[in-house]
Amino acid sequence: MSPVPGSVLRPADAVDRDRLLATFLELLAVDSPTGHEEEIGAVLEARYAELGCTTTKDDIGNIVAVFPGTRPGTILVSTHMDTAGTDRGIVPVIGDDGVIRTDGTTILGADDKSGLAGCMEVMRLLRAHPEWSFPTIEFVSTVGEESGLVGSRHLDVSRLNATHGFVLDTAGVMGSVTYWSPTSVYLTITFHGRKAHAGVEPEKGISAVQVAAEAVAAMQLGRIDEETVANIGTIQGGEARNVIPDTVVLQGMARSHDQDKLDRQLSAMRQACEQAAEAHSAAVDFVQEEIYKTYRIAEDARPYREAASAIRSLGLEVSPRKSGGGTDGNYFNAKGIPCVALPTGMVDEHATSEHIAIDDLVVACQVLLAIVTQPAQGDEQP
Ligand SMILES: [Zn+2]
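The joint structure predicted for all components is written out below.
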């Protein structure tokens, strides 16, 4: 049902379900596996300009589209234009139950095209309703989110004026607000032993496989505590059955919502490696790289309060969500723009079972529209 002009009670009621769905399907049709965002970037840049934004693209392809407000203040609304993995040729299937799925051979890409479609619908509505009161919105669409938040990591936020923001890029029930995300650290651990002929003179060798096995066996992995997880995900090394292997490389990660707990877990993993190496006169390089940093937004901070009041205005319940992963929001928070992350309706993202209910796509868009059009909540510091 299309709203009759002039009869709209709340801006959120103006969301056009059919138009939103059509936009979403158009975006799904543009392949954008992570690292290959040129085509989707060109599509978005053109659309944002048509919808009244001033758009700029940085040297790695991040797009900032500024939609001018009708009242003072600037907020950030962030999405990412890449999709996980390498899938192309996505074929969405709309079920009789109002759920959009894949044909079973690829991901859907609702992560994060559902967020992008919602932003475009909001731009269209704001353009059609200059009588509404809303702040200037910096719509940021990043590249490389699925490759480790590459786009937001590189984005120069000194170009932005936003005091706070909203990242449309999570799963979770409608009404959830992701206020707390962990720090994630990637590990690359290389064991150096000594090569020798295993049949002829094994006593001259030091087996890097054996050292690595001892190290991994001594580690606590999986769920460490309520806040902390750790994993060794790959193990590679050796060259032949009859050669004592001199190199083994492990790749792993650890995450925690608590920095002290993470530091303790990482040093325990390092110690396990060093002790195993020492016991066999081998050597180890233990390299850790922080991929993103934890953030925690208080309930009385501006992005949380604004998201919560918008959600309540739609008759939904606010559910605080602590996530196990990161979003571009981790970098915006680290760079001084406090953000919460919000659900777009996506379910089972990154899998061939990925799907989204059209009703949830609509609600996510309504939440965003309610956030931007609700009365200003003062200009106090976030
Ligand atoms: Zn995503």
